[in-house]
Design brief:
heterodimer, A: 376 residues, mainly alpha, 14 helices, 0% strand, globular, B: 176 residues, alpha+beta, Alpha-Beta Plaits, 3-stranded antiparallel β-sheet, 5 helices, binds iron/sulfur cluster
Amino acid sequence: MTAAHFWITLLKAVLVALALLTTFAYMTLVERRLLARMQIRRGPNRVGPLGLLQPLADAIKSVFKEDVLATNRDRVVFFLAPLISITTALTVFGAIPAGRPGGFFGANPWVFNLDIGVIFILAFTSLGVYGIFLAGWASGSKYSLLGGLRSSAQVISYELGQGLSILGLLILVGSANLRSIVHWQYHHGWLIAFQLIGFACFLISSFAETNRTPFDLPEAEQELVAGYLTEYSSLKWALFQMSEYVNMITASALISTLFLGGYRGPAFLDAVVPGISGWPYLWLLLKIALFLFLFIWVRATFPRLRYDQLMRFGWKVLFPVALLNALLTAAFVGLLPGLSPWILGLVSLLILIALLALGDRLLAGNRKLARGSAGD
Amino acid sequence: MGVLDLAKGMGVTLGKLFSKPLTVSYPESRVQLKPRFRGRHVLTRHPDTGLEKCIGCSLCAAACPSYAIYVEAAENDPAHPVSPGERYAKVYEINMLRCIFCGLCEEACPTGAIILGNEFEMADYRYGDFVYGKEDMLVGQYGSRPQRREAERQGTPVRLGLSVQPREELEGVRYP
Ligand code: SF4
Ligand code: SF4
């Protein structure tokens, strides 16, 4: 690696971190405004025009707030936990390709490019849970510990489903390199069409991985007094918030890259405006914004799951369905080579619809069972 | 809870996103109060003679559950009566920090002199400033103490943050 290469990579890393942190700051504002509008309120609109300076005010507030330190804390780990969280969150985004090679003023628009890109991202995002778990443990308070435990159990359970849900995708594409995946999608069509079940599983487990509603049990305000965050205040608390939002952005970018064609627009639009699918950054940003909106939208709509519901869903629904998808794709690729992947997409769609309809039936049956046993 | 129900829920929130917020941007736009909202007290006068209705009987003070009212009565000068009765309230004070705006004073008053009006913007800085005297509550006094002070300082008219339908007991009181 030459010195110039090193400096350019460092510069890109800093730029990505800055961009993520700015996005985080404004995400908080956008989320609050959108939530407010969905609840027929107005949301923060006092600081600056349209409330646009609100993130700045929040930043100043959280920096100057008193840093309350729990007496029972583990001194080193208590301090380390938020750093682990934010470091893993920020690192992962570097693997997302944001454009074609050389698209960033002659440099490559990604910080690092690994052949095991997807695996690396999954592995590193799960490292982030150490931040949460250690925070819960180091706080020396039972609520925090419960929050931390919940979080680790949740992430372990959903990690499996998430990993399995992209297995089918990897079998189809034949590479774990994010750039190859984007490239494959440009030529064959977006993977969401062929891997509908995988997409659904991955999306749901992404909600769980980022600890967002309806899976935000680790930081349940009502029953756990904000879980692992209970003893944190001031800047350390802000770091945790930051990592949650950065994780959310990364998850959006990852879903877009894996299933929605990444930094390339849909190929058929090229017929209308030549070259539009190659416009850099625009497509990725659009897709990320779409998923961030989805995150907020879901948060505004659904209540939090109960813990046993969360576990049951993870192990009894998500995991088998993701496995089924992987087996289906493997069988399709292995037994019927040369067949168009569109057929797989159609089969997936039918199975997904059947699963949804069946799921309703099963749930209704379960409920009847539960009611019967409660009457005994 | 089926998938369709989930989708329906998402639809509801999405629809609300494009609806007009219910929030009243309070200081800029006025809040619409119900006519019987109980706010700052008004001491009314007889509309024909202009004499104060209050006769200084202290029944309101006796009825008040939070001992917020202080009345000191004095004999009327027959040549220049303040009220139509024998006596009138020389001092009439209500401590707005103690008052719970229950309206019992209004019910106890034999002459209908004390009526709870609709003003509520009385936030102030000093305890002493919350003791409202006759001059603050007699009919025709527009706005609370801090509002009038601020208006005088800026040379602008008092602006109330409320709008409400008039109530007939509040003779002579008109809110915007
Ligand atoms: S409204 Fe109630 S608390 Fe207030 S002065 Fe009248 S009687 Fe007392
Ligand atoms: S306000 Fe009514 S009750 Fe109170 S002293 Fe005057 S006349 Fe009596």
